[in-house]
Amino acid sequence: MPGGGAHPEDAQLFAPAALGDLRRGARELSWLRRRGYALKSALKLVGDRYQLRERQRTAIKRATSGAGREAARAERRQRRGAAAPEAVWVDGFNVVITLETALNGGVLVTTLDGTLRDLAGVHGAYRVSAATERALELLALDLRERGWGGVPLRWLLDAPVSNTGRLAARIRERAEHEGLPWEVEVVPDPDPVLREAPPGSVVASGDAPVLDDCPAWFDWAGECVRARCPEAWLVDLELGGL
């Protein structure tokens, strides 16, 4: 389930002894994707070569991309210490699930563009939990420490995902409790909305297609995890040099 803890086999699948093949597989998959190979066939080729299990294949798939747009993404990335934007548009489930995964002891992989990604992504099943409350608390704290506490936030949540209404209610409650100018919208698909964020705004997401098209972005969840979740399980596939 998105935002859940570790899979029973993760201790073996992502053990130090497995990282060599995972890193080699990730680099080769990235090489193939950048040269136009279809993801499905490239992933099968690499996965079969290194005898990777399904979750390992998911990890290297989510860590790489095929467009070679990482440099362009990096130019539009807002680092900590940047001036406050006019508004922040938030890829709600993407941000919350990533942080929940860290809090619950699940695997997060480092990616080619520097973001952190979980292995589940956003699917139809989602459940609000104690980790949800803690994630929202950490996000509010992080925003204040950036000096962005007064910046309007537009949270966008996927309507097809279960318990969207409950998450929306929790976000509104947190905003009211903290005195933060947050608004929540439930839409059929947040991605096209986020891509149309206006100049002067910043998008909070780790979703590659969104990062390619939005005016500016920051990895809010990933930065929170690195700063506030010292026990988080981060699998470094060492793709930074590609």
Helix and strand arrangement:
Elements: H1 10-13, H2 19-34, H3 39-49, H4 54-63, H5 70-75, E1 87-91, H6 92-103, E2 107-110, E3 116-118, H7 130-146, E4 153-158, H8 164-178, E5 182-187, H9 190-195, E6 201-204, H10 208-213, E7 217-218, H11 220-228, E8 233-235
Helix pairs in contact: 2-3, 2-4, 3-4, 6-7, 6-11, 7-8
Describe the structure.
This protein has two domains: 7-66; 69-235, Rossmann fold (3-Layer(aba) Sandwich). The chain has helices spanning 10-13, 19-34, 39-49, 54-63, 70-75, 92-103, 130-146, 164-178, 190-195, 208-213, 220-228; strands at residues 87-91, 107-110, 116-118, 153-158, 182-187, 201-204, 217-218, 233-235. Helix 10 (208-213) links the parallel strand 6 (201-204) and strand 7. The chain has 242 residues and is α/β, with parallel strands linked by helices. It contains eleven helices and eight strands. Helix 3 packs across helix 4. The strands form two sheets. The chain has a five-stranded parallel beta sheet with strand order 5-4-1-6-7. The chain has a three-stranded mixed beta sheet with strand order 3-2-8, with helices on both faces. It is globular, with a radius of gyration of 18 Å.
N-to-C CA distance: 31 Å
So, CATH architecture of the largest domain? Answer: 3-Layer(aba) Sandwich
User: Radius of gyration from the CA trace?
Assistant: 18 Å
How many separate structural domains? Answer: 2
Oligomeric state of this protein: single chain
Task: Enumerate how many helices there are, as a single number.
Answer: 11
Runs in which pLDDT lies below 50 for 5 or more consecutive residues are none
The total strand number stands at 8
Order of helices and strands: HHHHHEHEEHEHEHEHEHE
Strand content: 5-15%
Q: In the CATH scheme, what's the topology name of the largest domain?
A: Rossmann fold
In percent, how helical is the residue content? Answer: 40-55%
Mean residue pLDDT: 93
